[in-house]
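Quick question: what would this complex look like in 3D?
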Amino acid sequence: MIPVNTPRLCGNEKKYLLECIETGWISSEGPFVQRFESEFSAYCNRKHGVAVANGSAALDIAVKAIGIGAGDEVIMPTFTIISPAQSVVQQGGIPVLVDSDPETWNMDVSQLEEKITPRTKAILVVHIYGLPVDMDPVIELARKHGLKIIEDAAEMHGQTYKGRKCGSFGDISVFSFYPNKHITTGEGGMLVIDDDELAEKCRGYRNLCFQPQKRFVHSDLGWNYRMTNMQAALGCAQLEQIDDTVKRKREIGALYTEKLKGIPGLQLPQVRTEYAENIYWVYGIVVEDSAPFSVDDLVAHLGSKRIGTRPFFWCMHEQPVFQTMGLFDGTSYPVAENMARNGFYVPSGLGMSNDDIDAVVAALRERIGND
Ligand SMILES: *Cc1c(COP(=O)(O)O)cnc(C)c1O
């Protein structure tokens, strides 16, 4: 059995967790929370870190704190996990979608400017699968049109764009620490921010908008999205290992590419762009139209060998929930639609061995008839 992800917890995780239990600090009041916030935000070259319960919670807070409300338009990729779109819609905002680049799988930034209207408030960047979005054109457009940037860096711990850390580009940038991310706290997330006032606002939204002076008197609505000391303890231990983690993920990616390249019909992840080297949050494969096998064939065969896979994200404009709401009527984004239909990813967790990689490759070759 090779699961699609197995985490690796081989540093100080156990020691720090024991410390939580021995000291009795298990809630969000414990000392690891602030330590993780300051260490992780410093790692991203940001002034403030606001640790939260998960990455989707971080997006909820980011969208509200940046001021997205009824009728405000937010430009984002159609090819993404639902979290960023859901956060915008739940605040009454309207996602305005952009198609993907067929090579990097990120949003095609050349299509951004035509989407800007007088109601556009923000660009919500989502870095996909291992390569960052081409940020310079995004930053330039945001400046020119007075737009905010929210950066979803949930798949980008340790990645850089032209040498600058991912997570350093948004007015607010967010991370997830789910077990398949490069740093995990089991469940968890963080907002990283430079602006003092914005950070204070986010801390309020995380903590039910309790007020420092009159705790149980509320002048706004937030959430209980706090992170526990135990989660933060894991986070501190994981952050100590981030360089090794990125190195190993790149190794896994390079091994797959070396063993799979040249097989007709498979589009493999782009190894590098002029601005970044892939960190392979996941190792994605898109089955090309010309292939004599389908994505379902490959997924079924791997499944029969007890090898886990996941389909690619499903586009936002094709989500039944948004269609029911009358969003995105009659729109089409052909590149993203093709990726969603023909893409899947194979196991690439930090807990897997090189033998596991060989087993996945052998199973793929067996079905493709290329062994
Ligand atoms: C994982 C992920 C999220 C959601 O994070 P959770 O912690 O699972 O809520 C959001 N955005 C992206 C791009 C992700 O990959």
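Answer marked as accepted. The mean pLDDT is 97.
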